[in-house]
Amino acid sequence: MTTIAVLGAGKIGEALLSGLLSGGRSPDELLFTERYEGRAAELTKQYGVRAVDVPTAAVEAEVLVVAVKPQDIDPVLAELAPVVSDRNLVVSLCAGLPTSLYERKLPDSIPVVRVMPNTPMLVGQAMSVISAGKHAKQQHLELVEELLSTVGEVIRVPEAQQDAVTALSGSGPAYFFYLVEAMIDAGILLGIPRNVAEKLIIQSAVGAATMLAETGTHPVILREAVTSPAGTTIMAIRELERHGVRAALLAAIEAARDRSQELGKAHEG
Ligand SMILES: NC(=O)C1=CN([C@@H]2O[C@H](COP(=O)(O)OP(=O)(O)OC[C@H]3O[C@@H](n4cnc5c(N)ncnc54)[C@H](O)[C@@H]3O)[C@@H](O)[C@H]2O)C=CC1
Ligand SMILES: O=C(O)[C@@H]1CCC=N1
Predict the structure, then answer these.
(1) What is the enclosing helix (H) or strand (E) of 66?
(2) pLDDT tens digits for 105-122?
(3) d(Cα 167, Cα 254) in Å, to the nearest integer?
(4) Mostly located where (predicted)?
(5) Ligand 1: which of 12, 35, 43, 114 to mutate, judged by most atoms within 8 Å of the beta carbon?
(6) Do the beta carbons of residue 17 and residue 43 sit within 8 Å?
(7) Considering Cα of 21, then 27, then 29, then 32, what sign does the dihedral take?
(8) 3-state secondary structure of 156
(9) Which-ligand-closest: CA of 115?
(10) Whether pLDDT at 269 is above 70
(11) Ligand 2: which residue has its CA nearest to atom 8?
(12) Protein residues with CB under 6 Å of any ligand 1 atom
């Protein structure tokens, strides 16, 4: 049995705990640390998972998953450094933070794996992208893959691509939620009741996502199949092009990539 401790049980830490439990892990195999006592008590009540301190986590758990905001990493590394040992694997979910930061602040040879997950982990549909640090071996990557495959899809990339990955799939769900929100507003503009507009747009999103995932057909082909000559869809597409929506997406994702790089640079030694 591999015990996993989540250090920082906020949105993504809770999604991981909840996803691992739904994926069949027992609460006894999970631990977490959380700086807010009320939040810790709430999570223990809801999931039956024990809140501990960092030294206890390092002794009782083999896998230590860091899930605090990148800006909060320094105290966590300071607490971990004296207690972590080579029986631990450190897994970082933090946007922007390179494995070299952990390698510099923790004792020699501690294996580190960097992961960019996303919140659909809550429903077993995460996209988790993993990269090995200097001391992480094949067996460590395989262990992380095994853990995360219970809560969604997992792929490996070289660490140099992680800032771009963060902008694409880490933040990706937010862009889809934003689009859905805007399309529901369009329904309101056209006089459709909100509950009906929500149903129409959410089911269209689910249907479109299922077609993309299940048919393997290129999105251009799927979009063309909806776009009839002189029909309704092409009128909408012309407006999207006129308003530069494609260029806006390219610029938005580039800005997110740049921010991920900046978060890493803020911790350069
Ligand atoms: N929210 C998202 O969609 C995604 C977040 N991430 C990454 O996951 C990490 C966590 O993000 P969120 O869950 O959104 O943030 P959050 O703010 O919801 O959660 C962070 C949690 O860590 C706790 N915390 C902070 N310092 C602590 C300490 N020293 N000891 C114990 N607990 C401590 C906070 O009280 C909070 O509950 C970030 O580094 C973020 O970049 C990665 C992918 C997606
Ligand atoms: O916005 C953020 O910084 C985090 C990282 C990826 C998704 N949310």
Answers:
(1) strand 63-66
(2) 999 899 999 999 999 999
(3) 7
(4) cytoplasm
(5) 12
(6) yes
(7) positive
(8) strand
(9) 1
(10) no
(11) 171
(12) 7-13, 33-36, 39, 67-70, 72, 75-76, 93-95, 116-119, 170
DSSP state of 29: G
The DSSP secondary structure of 161-175, one letter per residue, reads GHHHHIIIIISHHHH
Band (267; pLDDT cuts 50, 70, 90): confident
Alpha helix (H) ranges present in the chain? 11-22, 37-47, 54-60, 73-80, 99-105, 138-148, 162-165, 172-189, 194-215, 219-226, 232-242, 245-265
Q: What ipTM was estimated for this complex?
A: 0.99
The ligand that comes nearest to the alpha carbon of residue 70 is 1
The answer to whether the CB of 75 falls within 8 A of the CB of 23 is no
Strands 89-92 and 63-66: parallel
Contact 20, 147 (CB under 8 A): yes
- Pairing relationship of beta strands 126-132 and 152-156 according to DSSP bridges: parallel
- Please say whether the beta carbons of 51 and 24 come within 8 A: no
Residue bearing the CA closest to ligand 2, atom 5: 95
Q: For residue 116, which atom of ligand 2 is closest to its CA?
A: 6
Q: Kindly list the protein residues whose Cβ atom lies closer than 6 A to any atom of ligand 2.
A: 95, 166, 170-171
| Ligand 1 mutation target, pool 72, 94, 263, most atoms within 8 A of CB | 72
Handedness of CA 167, 170, 171, 177 (dihedral sign): positive
Class in CATH terms, 4-158: alpha beta
Q: Where are the domains of the chain?
A: 4-158, 172-262
Ligand 1 atom at shortest distance from the alpha carbon of 8? 22
The domain defined by 172-262 carries CATH number 1.10.3730.10: yes
